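DM from R.C. (forwarded with permission)

"hey, sorry to bug you on a friday — could you get me a structure for this? deadline for the figure draft is monday and I only need the backbone to look sensible"
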Amino acid sequence: MKKDNNRRSFLKNIAIASFGVTALPSVAGAANLPVDEEKEYNKTAETRRRFNDVYAGKYNNRAAFPIGGIGAGMFCLEGTGAISHLSVRHNPEMFHEPAMFAAISLKGTPGLARVLEGPVPDWKKFGQRDAGLGGTGGATWGLPRFKTATLQARFPFAHITLADPQLPLQVSIKGWSPFIPTDEDHASMPVGGLEYQFTNKSHQEEEYVFSYNTRNFMRQGDAGNAIKPYANGFILSQAAVADAPEKQGHFAIYTSEPNTVVDHCWFRGNWFDPLTMVWNTLKEGNTRNTPPVAQDAPGASLFVPFRLQPGEKKTIRVMMAWYVPDSKLRIGDTVGNQPGAPAYYKPWYSSRFDSIQAVADYWAQHYNTLQENTQRFTDTFYNSSLPPEVLEAVAANLTILKSATVMRQHDGRFWCWEGSGDSWGSCHGTCTHVWNYAQAVPHLFPALERSLRNTEFNENQNAEGHQGFRANLPISPLVHNFHSAADGQLGGIMKIYRDWRISGDYDWLKKMYPLIKVSMDYCIRTWDPEGKGLVEEPHHNTYDIEFWGPTSMCTSFYLGALQAIMHMGTFLHQDISAYSSLYQKGKQALETTLYNGEFFIQQIKWTGLKAPDPVKAQSFGTQYAEEALVLLKKEGPKYQYGEGCLSDGILGAWIARVCGLEEPVDAAKTKSHLLAVHKYNLKKDLSTHVNPQRSTYALGGEGGLLLCSWPKGGMLSLPFVYSNEVWTGIEYQVAAHLMFHGEVEKGLEIVRACRQRYDGTVRNPFNEYECGHWYARAMSSYGLLQGLTGVRYDAVDQALYIDSRIGDFTSFISTNTGFGTVNWKKGVPSLKVAYGTIPATHAVVAGKKMSLQLV
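My reply, with the result:
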């Protein structure tokens, strides 16, 4: 009876979440509060924005939705309709908001013109950022605009609605760029589209002028800049200059309207003259037809006059394309030059297209087809019965693939930062221990993900098996002068297994296996030289330090990697007996010596190891001053977790699970650990939490999942760096892992705490940051789909796996060759393919083979 009540409670909460504010956050969030504070908490909860719903009012304060291609650069369409974060020169420019705006003028009513944006957010109103001094046009924030704006995100589409009581005109904006799973090339194009739809709400025919206006933000100095003609638009252009080819860059803005009028050169003057004269034209409802000039045009505009009968609608399509073929970006020391490779980073699209005209032409010619296929993805993804907070968390972090965090070099290979700094890439080289968490790319664009494995096990790995965890750019053989990352290198072995099962590519596995074996053997020699089955020797990891002594975290990776190589080796008829022996010993040791009866821990050890003592084996940031030497004698090396309850304490088991492996650790003990993490590390209110580290991820009255706590004592004076922080990527992996083990409500509670911090009031809902904006670790949210449903496709066995934790469901699936939806209803599994093919022959439900209905 208790089980039935719990089930009804869960379904009730899911139903409420689908139509309004969830009941669960108010109850859980009010826990441990005095009665009067609990009432106030629940009153506040009633007014919260609903998950996966519109952003309006205070929730539309920081929303900025990325538009662009994978590795091609981006701009953001803000929830107001403004353009910001314009980053097309292979470098993040998070506060680049050029004077670039659409406007509508009502002819016959002088002065009735509006920028097609909502009110300027209050946070922009203080300071001199983009003050606009000089002859470049200035900021546009002082121009009249619509009274209200709302945003609804349906990735990769952003839908904005503008309203103003003074204008009998309904306006909506749709911003997007191509995103078609399995079609990585079209998803990597340097393009974006904005569609402005107008509806005449008056009782008479009205005449309007739509315009799109921009300063020449591509200009780099005084030489070689121009605004060039293009059909129904213009190209902001900067030529390469002597000794600086990277300055070349072009940005096209154009429409599909044949009656478009183009002003190729704004009024040239000082101070605010150019923008002042532009507005003089707009407010009168006029157009300006000005031919191109040789150079130094401050900006350009295009105009589309049109008429609407009462109730009539018109959509004007603004297409944007850019082309920056060179850069000065080069990272890392190399051991030799690769023949034919450029000295600096060149984007993939520069190999596919030879000019801005070629990109713009292709975008215009294929716009409708690309939008149709992209819309097919969106419709399929959102055709889901999963909780709205999960859909929101997954989709919000797919925007990372549109951001400046990700790049694609000249030969199409994927290369990424960890995140995007304000004006620089944050932490280079597709860092293996960070990208372990990211589960979106291997399913949506498997070929790009496999290119990461090719880099890791070739250019990043030497003959001894030492694997660097940060790739050079352009990709080239590394100089091996720093630690391997235990979690990164061991995780890579599990990801090889995952990528093989997703692709079904036997030849790729056969080619990679000798490299996998070299890597695995290096890991054993380096971190488990005595063959205990434990990662014991000092091991570098995602916290940017070394753990000394056996850790549950990295030993769970070790067991997962051993299991992966055993499966691959058996498939290839290799001898895996040594790995099997280590696996059995390690599993027994982890489940006993590293388990305290409730959760997994670390045994700190710094003597009796092969490695020198911590003082001699320094890594960055771990130098020992006199005070630290005192702590060393008392507590051991700096930056450990010891008896702590680590949220990542059994991370390798989650990685194994999402890679299609069985979890390598006893299920009951794993579940106990996850419940302890939820119990001790999830905080509803951080007001009294001490965090001398990076506190802006979550602070004050906000909730979040701490990286670690010490509920049974034993907290070190200097625990591992970041231990007091909250990382969304870890929140999602713990939530998904709880779901795998049947604790759906607890997993959802963590997801809600995270997404409530990113509700648009203070933080951008589409930019979950850690060490940089659009931080890659947050793509662990994609694993929530599998955590709830167990859905994955195995191309080797042509099997569709299902293991639902939520009863009947409909959910999205993407594979190496197509995408669609999986339906589980009344014990019957079915598959509907929306794009491409998914050649599944049968289903495996909770370990049992079943027939599969193909819809």
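R.C.: lifesaver. The longest helix spans residues 356-382.
me: no worries. Residues 63-328+346-371 form a domain with the Beta-galactosidase; Chain A, domain 5 fold (CATH 2.70.98).
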